[in-house]
Amino acid sequence: MAVQISPSILAADFARLADEAAAVPNADWLHVDVMDYHFVPNLTLGLPVVEALRKATSTPLDCHLMIADPDRWAPAYAEAGAGSVTIHAEAAKAPVRTLREIRSLGARAGLALSPATAVEPYEDLLGEIDMLLLMTVEPGFGGQKFLDIMLPKIRRSRALIERHGGRVWLQVDGGVDAETIGRCAEAGADVFVAGSAVYGAADPAAAIDALRATAIRQSG
Ligand SMILES: O=C(CO)[C@H](O)[C@H](O)COP(=O)(O)O
Ligand SMILES: [Co+2]
């Protein structure tokens, strides 16, 4: 398992996104939280900003769509140049079709599960995805406290992924910081989203190095 860090620009200065992307040259991805005021009670950014960011940075974009109609909109994010497009299982009406469309457009396809959504019903979809995203807070806002009750789900997801060949990345998102990342890594996560822990730090790049070192130390 290769550890990857995906800083969330939700915690960055939206007026200076190009500079904020440049501040994390050691990031594997830039996590872009798209919220539409319907799937979650918050509104962030959409396609025009993703298109602009794509031109402003060479770091691949990891788009996390917290929107009510991902079947309609997800392909456009792949077309806009996102390296990875993740849809929520709770929102998608035709997830298999949408995941296949994302892949056919050249992006990695991700499936996200909110805290109360069990992973087991999605076992048969593992062959359709490149990444499983487990929310470790309720989706909608940055800066929330990590939900420890998600650790068993991270372990169960890792076991399912290994049973299916170990190809799918396991991402955790929400409240991941210097204190919680080790437990997530030990439980089997390999891609770590961190918003406040990176952009709230005096030196975001140094924060990424420290998170990565802890995750590597704790990985099984
Ligand atoms: O998807 C998200 C919220 O819905 C964000 O990616 C997540 O909350 C990151 O922020 P932080 O690390 O501050 O919790
Ligand atoms: Co996110």
UniProtKB/TrEMBL annotation:
For this protein, what does the record note about how its cofactor is bound?
A: Binds 1 divalent metal cation per subunit.
Pfam annotation, one family: Ribul_P_3_epim
Cofactor(s) needed for function: a divalent metal cation; Fe(2+); Zn(2+); Co(2+)
UniProt-annotated binding residues for a divalent metal cation: 31, 33, 64, 173
Q: Does the keyword Transcription apply?
A: no
SUPFAM superfamilies with a match to the protein in the record: Ribulose-phoshate binding barrel
Q: Which reaction does it catalyse?
A: D-ribulose 5-phosphate = D-xylulose 5-phosphate
Pathway the protein contributes to? Carbohydrate degradation
Q: Where is the active site?
A: 33, 173
Quote the EC number. Answer: 5.1.3.1
Q: What does this protein do?
A: Catalyzes the reversible epimerization of D-ribulose 5-phosphate to D-xylulose 5-phosphate.
Protein name as catalogued: Ribulose-phosphate 3-epimerase
Species of the source: Nonomuraea rosea
